[in-house]
Specification:
The chain is α/β, with parallel strands linked by helices and about 350 residues long. It has helices at about 20-40, 80-90, 105-120, 125, 160-200, 215-225, 235-250, 270-275, 280-285, 305-320, and strands at about 5-15, 45-50, 70-75, 95-100, 130, 155-160, 200-205, 295-300, 325-330, 340-345, 345-350. It has one domain (about 5-350): Anaerobic Ribonucleotide-triphosphate Reductase Large Chain (Alpha-Beta Barrel), CATH 3.20.70.20.
């Protein structure tokens, strides 16, 4: 295909009151939408997803969804059945967002204990749980924090770090903005076509720069920054890319984060940096202050209090920005920084210190 980037995710946000067996039909329609997008527009659609509104009590009704990932929505950290509902959901292979609706030590420790319990059972379980540190739902295609308001519709995300890096090397930040505009236009066309197939509305595109292994967000930011993570000067590179994304997001009516994302488990270049021993979880989290989407897919030595502290620090950045920040962290017992932990979807991920 002619494009140097992909649609990372095409996501159906289910309406309130969806019926038993309905999602099987929707999943088939979503696959049909992908086929039409790839055939008529010529851009590859990498993944399909179904986001449900508060479906924790309806797991038995979901049925077959083909190769689509499924999120059961968001649950407040204060929910009395938090541990039971989140635990059963991720064990069934579903994704869950937890809203840190109270930024307190007691709430953060409760969530941290839940993450530790799931990760002790299997680190893969913790990869399906994300914490929204602002405590307010965000309309985004990105898992695990994606949610459905119950209105219904489709959203999309892009996979384009290397395309933007090449654009920067050819023409600097103006070329990056032009590349984001072009990709946004194509993604909106793809989204409108998919919405037509599904008989629903197009909710919007999240323009975030999100990696997948050799498609490296870190590669783009290091090129713009002119230095390596975590050296001084790197944060300005993050900020400059985010300013480009913010400008185009305003122009195009984008939804979601619209920020640089640096999930450790999904970025080969970031894995390499972490393996060198210079990167800590706090280094990555501090970048949220210059508009990073959060602390994602990091593996750290198990410590309930310190992980709770990271959640509270994320809440502080989220409040300062007035925007959602996600935290997806995998605490593992009896590991040291520099060790590797094998995650089924992400390969070996280096352990970093908190």
């Amino acid at each position: 295909m002619g494009f140097k980037y992909q649609i990372r995710a095409l996501v159906y946000h289910a309406p309130a009151g969806w019926g038993e067996g309905e999602l099987e039909e929707v999943a088939a329609k979503l696959a049909e939408g992908r086929e039409r997008v790839e055939r008529e527009i010529g851009i590859k659609v990498w993944s399909l997803r179904l986001t449900l509104p508060q479906a924790f009590e309806r797991v038995d009704e979901i049925g077959e969804t083909g190769d689509a990932l499924v999120s059961l929505g968001n649950l407040p950290a204060s929910h009395p059945k938090l541990e039971e509902l989140v635990g059963s959901a991720v064990r069934e292979g579903f994704y869950v967002g937890v809203l840190l609706d109270e930024a307190s030590w007691s709430s953060a420790i409760r969530v941290s204990q839940l993450i530790h319990k799931l990760s002790e059972e299997s680190p893969d379980l913790a990869t399906r749980l994300g914490v929204n540190a602002l405590g307010e739902p965000l309309l985004t295609p990105y898992y695990p924090l994606s949610y459905s308001s119950g209105e219904g519709g489709v959203s999309a995300a892009l996979l384009y770090p290397n395309y933007l890096r090449d654009s920067y090397q050819e023409g600097g930040l103006p070329a990056v903005k032009a590349a984001v505009r072009e990709a946004a236009k194509v993604a909106k066309s793809a989204l409108n076509l998919a919405a037509e197939v599904l008989g629903t509305k197009a909710l919007g595109v999240d323009l975030s720069v999100s990696p997948w292994m050799e498609e490296s967000s870190l590669g783009l930011v290091e090129a713009v920054a002119g230095t390596r993570l975590p050296r001084p000067g790197f944060a300005l590179g993050v900020r400059r890319v985010n300013e480009a994304l913010e400008e185009v997001a305003r122009e195009t009516g984008a939804i979601g984060f619209n920020e640089v994302q640096l999930p450790l488990g999904e970025d080969s270049r970031l894995k390499a940096r972490a393996s060198e021993g210079e990167v800590t979880a706090r280094d990555l989290l501090r970048l949220s202050g210059v508009s990073l989407a959060g602390l994602d897919l990091v593996v750290v030595p198990a410590n309930v209090n310190e992980v709770a502290g990271l959640l509270l620090d994320a809440a502080a950045y989220a409040r300062a920005k007035g925007k959602a920040l996600g935290v997806r962290i995998i605490p593992v017992e009896e590991v040291e920084p520099g060790d590797g932990v094998l995650l089924s979807r992400f390969g070996e991920v280096p352990v970093i210190p908190i």
